[in-house]
Each structure stands twice: as structure tokens, then as C-alpha cells.
Fold:
Amino acid sequence: EVQLVQSGAEVKKPGESLKISCKASGYSFTTYSIGWVRQMPGKGLEWMGIIYPGDSETTYSPSFQGQVTISADKSISTAYLQWSSLKASDTAMYYCAREGSGAGYGMDVWGQGTTVTVSS
Amino acid sequence: YELTQPLSVSVALGQTARITCGGNNIGSRNVFWYQQKPGQAPVLAIYRDIYRPSGIPERFSGSISENTATLTITRAQAGDEADYYCQVWDDNTRVFGGGTKLTVL
Structure:
């Protein structure tokens, strides 16, 4: 079964760092991209960025460039989303999603989501 | 690039719902639709404008014209109540519409 399993909920203080994970199984990790999507409380989906684990090529939304870092570890089929200094406005649900290579492929498999709460 | 969706659409049980997604020359892009039920992760409902992934009922269909993509749900069921998002590629990034809340009356 193809699945993405995300790390558990996090509660952090402003200024702290955080790295959340997305572990893939059931398919070849290096032949699909992994994207990250933010959903703030009661709001819509926002695309943050994507990584192709085969060569680690990464693309960010202009809105998130410089705010987060996306990475992947092929050896353990896991993608990551990290912050160096969290803000209260980072409070949201974060989803990872698999995407096939090429413009004709959507995000066909999603993780269950990781809730991040940033509060003093 | 911006995608415009209505905030909400209502449909009577068993009738047909149409959710639109407007964008400049959207007809030249591949459009994807996602369904998100409360408390759940999104699910890909339509890809490349008109194609249904396995497991998505035939009641769901997509269509596209020059500036509008449409998700059509026939014989609407209570279980179709959800938020629906359209999405396209814009250069190497992806853009979501603001989402439409479908209510089945």
C-alpha cells in the first residue's frame, strides 16, 4: 500500500526551531516528488514547495521562500519540512503529498497531516 | 497566477452540483481538483482536467473551457459535503484556488 506517514503534533514557542517528517512507503521514493501544503485554521490550502528526492531539486513558493527548508533523506524514504525560528503565524496543519513527475500529475497520495502550534 | 472559486455552493440531495474555478486562460493548463472532508486530508478527485483516479465515483467529472474549469457532481449525496479545491501548475510552482464549500441540502 502506498502511504505517507507524518510525524506527530508539535507545540512550540516562538523562536524555536522545528523539523517535521513525512515517511513514504509502498513505492519508489526517488521517482516521485513530495510537496508540502499548509492549511491555517479554518482556511484553504497553500502550496509551500516541493522536492524531487531523486536529485534533491527543490522549488519553493515565493510566499515561503526563505521561511522554511524542504529536504529529503533517500536512505530512509523520508521528506522533511523545517523552520529555524517559528512564529505564531506558523500555527497550522501541514500536509505532505506525493506528486508524479511532470505537469500532468497531481498530488495523488497525502499524509495525514501534522498540526503545529506555536504559542508563548 | 490566481484561481477564483465561489466560497460556497449548495445542491439538493440527488441533484447536480457544479463548482467553478476561474483563471486567465486556464484552458491551456492542467487542472486538478481535490476534495477535503472535515478533519481529513485532501483527496485527488480529478486530474488533467477530466480524469478520475481510481476510487473516485463516476458521479464526479471535470470539464474545462478557455477561462473556467468546472467540477460537476451528479446525483449529489450527503457524503459529498466537503471543501473542494482546484489547482494548477504555474511555472514550477503550484497554485490552489481558495476553495468551495459544498453543502448538500
User: Anything to note?
Assistant: Chain B touches chain A through 24 residues (CB under 8 Å).
